[in-house]
User: Fold Elongator complex protein 6 from Apis cerana cerana.
Amino acid sequence: MDSVSNILGIDKVNMNGKLILIEEQHDSNANFLLNSVIFNALKNNYGICFVLFHNTINHYHNMGMKFGYNLTLLKEKDKITIIEPMKMIAYNMKYIYEPTKNCIINDVFIIIKNECEKMMQSNESVLIIMDDLNHIFNFGANLKEAISTLYSNTYL
Assistant:
């Protein structure tokens, strides 16, 4: 995995405060690229906050095992945290009378902020990985609100 990071130049970039956007086009797969970023973050003692709108943690765990890291063990060591907004929203649907896009987006942002603050107590820095940002649009958010959410997460 080091060789992929070297070739891509990921190992030469300080990721603190950076926004990395990885877009998959039809019939493409960015798993190797994302895993290079994850591997490099772990190598540099970063904590990782997974915000999973689409894939499950098992998906990332299985990929990680192929690339030489075990997310289950890393979770036990508080090196990663997992936020699954879709599960939280589905669980809370019976309590929502008038759902609003801003409320949902703000709630997710607050949870991300709180989890990252906890992780900063024991990690040098925290990398936030948001899986499939398109799901924010399912809540009625527009492009400006989605970018605002990304921008806000950059400065946690």
Q: What stands out?
A: The mean pLDDT is 82. Helices lie at 2-8, 31-43, 57-67, 71-76, 85-92, 101-120, 135-138, 143-154.
